[in-house]
Known about the structure:
Layout: H1 11-18, H2 24-27, E1 35-38, E2 41-43, E3 47-49, E4 55-58, H3 59-65, E5 69-73, E6 78-83, E7 86-91, E8 96-99, E9 102-105, E10 111-113, E11 116-120, H4 121-128, E12 131-135, E13 140-144, H5 164-169, E14 177-183, H6 191-199, E15 205-213, E16 219-220, H7 228-236, E17 241-246, E18 248-249, E19 252-253, H8 255-263, H9 265-279, E20 285-289, H10 298-312, E21 318-324, H11 341-347, E22 350-354, H12 371-382, E23 390-395, E24 397-402, E25 408-411, H13 412-422, E26 427-429, E27 434-440, E28 446-451, H14 454-467, E29 471-475, H15 483-494
Parallel strand pairs: 1-13, 14-15, 14-29, 15-17, 17-20, 20-21, 21-22, 22-23, 23-29
Antiparallel strand pairs: 1-2, 3-4, 4-11, 5-6, 6-7, 7-8, 8-9, 10-11, 12-13, 15-16, 18-19, 24-25, 24-28, 26-27, 27-28
Helix pairs in contact: 6-7, 8-9, 9-10, 12-14, 14-15
Amino acid sequence: xxxxxxxxxALAAMLICALTFIPASATSNAAAPVxxxxxxxxxxxxxxxxxxxxxxxALRPVAQALGATVTWDAGRYEAAVVRGDRTIVFSVGRRxxxxxxxxxxxxxxxxxxxxxxxxxxxFLAEALGVSLIWNPATQTFALTADAPAxxxxxxxxxxxxxxxSAEAATPRRGQHxxxxxxxxxxxxxxxxxxxxxxxxxxxxxxxxxxxHLDASGNLTNPTGGDSAGLEAAAKRYSRPLLAAVNNVNAxxxxxxxxxxxxxxxxARARAVENIYRLVRGRYAGINxxxxxxxxxxxxxxxxxxxxxxxxxxxxxxxxxLAVPAKTxxxxxxxxxxxxxxxxxxxxxxxVVIMSYDEHWAGGPAGPVASLGWVEKVARYAEAHIPPxxxxxxxxxxxxxxxxxxxxxxLTSPGAARKAAAVGAAVRWDAAAQVPYFNYWDRGWxxxxxxxxxxxxxxxxxxxxLRRRLAGIALWRLxxxxxxxxxxxxxxxxxYPAAR
Length: 499
């Protein structure tokens, strides 16, 4: 059993600890109390002013005053608010909520203080269709609500409410998201699905990777993999599933097909509509992973992302992107020039920075993602994209480079097994903060292997914490060192010691 930390009994201590999970921009005013009114009458509830004309409020009394019911799921650390035909679910410490089963990003997560769930007032009001006006002169939030309408359909039976003491003892979840990519490379491939099923409690978002955008704007499944099992697993463990749209073909990244889509208004409109039809009623959103685009398509790609967002976001779907890592903006670079970090960061809900393949299979041997390089990548990214939107890419693989020729990819456990099989000692590159080893094959060719394991990813997760980024994105589920889940993600991102 994983040991779960108890909340401090004193309210002051609880507030200090809890506020460590509020974004840094919110903490400057977070301790200032405010007044809440409902239909002109004061509500005596616990509340704390945030930086953005919003407040963290005691969820249960406010929601009940609005005519909603509130239930607490101690197993999932979730509070469900039901009013009429609307259901809002807050997960403690997570920057997303669910509104009628659709995932919606939160600027400030719900937290626990002294056995009470505090949630962002503005989001609650908007999700319930209640008017909210902020008066800075009187430090008052005014709610105006009509009597709630009866549900259109019966709401699903929630888990029984836990007593207040159980809520107080619930561990405080970290604010950082964990996204896992789940490719299906061939029919029957369940590599990523098995990882999701085994470690679902550590994962916040899952991305099914298997759909290709062709030159006409159609979506195809070139590997023939069936995502039904992955979708069922994500549903079973209540993990939002996104669909990735990629441009990978048998020869690499197909920039020509994407260029054809971007250059044709007809093909572009078809692509946007096909993405909407794919997502509608099936996925929580989209992940656009279109790589190695022509630098000349920079503006057209930004416009395309905006069109996708305009089509999906009104219905509550997440719009996320994967973009190449870079430390400067060379607009004519053939790998990264097409990606306008500033513009894309304004459009997307989350941006995955692919901070890996510093050294790749076709180049010289070296770390897949040295810590120093990743820090430079993160520093550049956060200067152009809001840190609360950045998911830092984490590789779960390595490469085996022969003295000459192209490297072969290895999973993290596969690299460790290879070292054991050839009798090589795994060494630690102190500068890069990654493991590596050398060996001779039977043809007397020397090999150099660099890979990632729990220790190297821990150093990168520490970087995420220091820089207050939104979280991490694992490429890919099923390739990771199993020790990363409890030793790194549990210990640092999900149930961190008070910092």
